[in-house]
Amino acid sequence: MSGELRAISTNRHEAFLPSPSVQNHAAFLSWQPDGSLACAWFGGTLEGKSDICIHLCLLGKDATTWGKTTRIEGDANRSEQNPVLFQSPKGGLLLFHTSQPDGNQDQSKVRVRTLDVAPANPGQIIAHPARDLPLQPGTFIRAPIIVRKDGAWLLPLFLCNARPGYRWNGSFDTAALAISTDHGQTWSQTDIPGSEGAVHMTIVPLDDGRMVAFYRRRQADFVFRSDSNDDGRTWSPPAATDIPNNNSSIAAIRLSDGRIALLCNPVSAAMSRDRRNSLYDELDVADSRPDAQDGCKPVWGVPRAPLTLCVSDDGGHTFPKRKIVEDGPGTCLSNNSLDGENKELSYPALTEGPDGSLHLAFTYHRRAIKYIRLAPGWLDGDPQ
Questions:
Q1: What pLDDT, on a 0 to 100 scale, did the predictor assign at position 124?
Q2: Where is the Sialidase domain (predicted)?
């Protein structure tokens, strides 16, 4: 995969990002001060294995090919996943990510490190040593950090709450928000009320101190939504939207015209009989503990396709406009990247360019990260 952009139509360009890994998953996009676009994801042989680590590459401003991918070496005993890139207001690019032993998400840590683009070799990434954030074990991240009007950093969390003697399976996951008022040196935590099963909290700032957040659901029913009227200090309990959810990741942004765009797989457990036991069925790790009991009854294995852009003009209450970006079987009954059985189009990242173009990156069959650029007006024009 060369990373070269191909014109599919006048309104659409796409590329597969170059990667040395067999498995590639969980893309994250971030604009850089020089106008380049950074994409981070995790790669290795299989999610949960200790060879999984963060990968990152850059698409230079006006470039037609993604640059060389940098594999960021991390903890050799942990699976390092879910990168979040953040351009600090004080300057500098920060990489946050999770770090867990095997499939034990309830033992995850969140780590942060500074990244530099090598001045003598543009596109090369230099990663500085990581440090652990002072958050409870089992803390996970996925969505962008939001900077509040007073300068505070809001980092959405989901908590893989442990049950002693039981194996994590998502039954007791909840949402929370980590808040730093000193540029990431210290953090406080606000729990989201009534958020059992609501994860991947993704915040979209509105106007007049209002914010809205959207959630993936372990129950694979709907994308959920909650409100804040005080700049993210307090939140309403999450409630269902009209968008189905398959217990897979979402991305949401506010467009320059004020509308909200939500990128997801609008499929629910009620729409498919496909099921798998857990997220980590393929990990060959001895663990005699039973799965956690009770809780919110997670559903795994619902197809992860099509990948659809859903648009709201009422602050995210309803999403009447829906356009498919990529389609396929979406089969995700296995995470194996070698047997060709996985056909998911999942875990999207979404951002808007200065010219109104939309930039997307997502997991393609657990084998690659696919990038798509949609020209301004694509959302409201004819499908191309």
A1: 78
A2: 35-360
pLDDT tens digits for range 95-117: 999 999 999 999 999 999 999 98
Alpha-carbon torsion angle 162, 163, 167, 168, nearest 10: -40
Angle subtended at Cα 266 by Cα 264 and Cα 270, rounded to the nearest 5 degrees: 140
Q: Say what the pLDDT of residue 117 is.
A: 81
Whether domain 6-378 has CATH 3.20.20.70: the reply is no
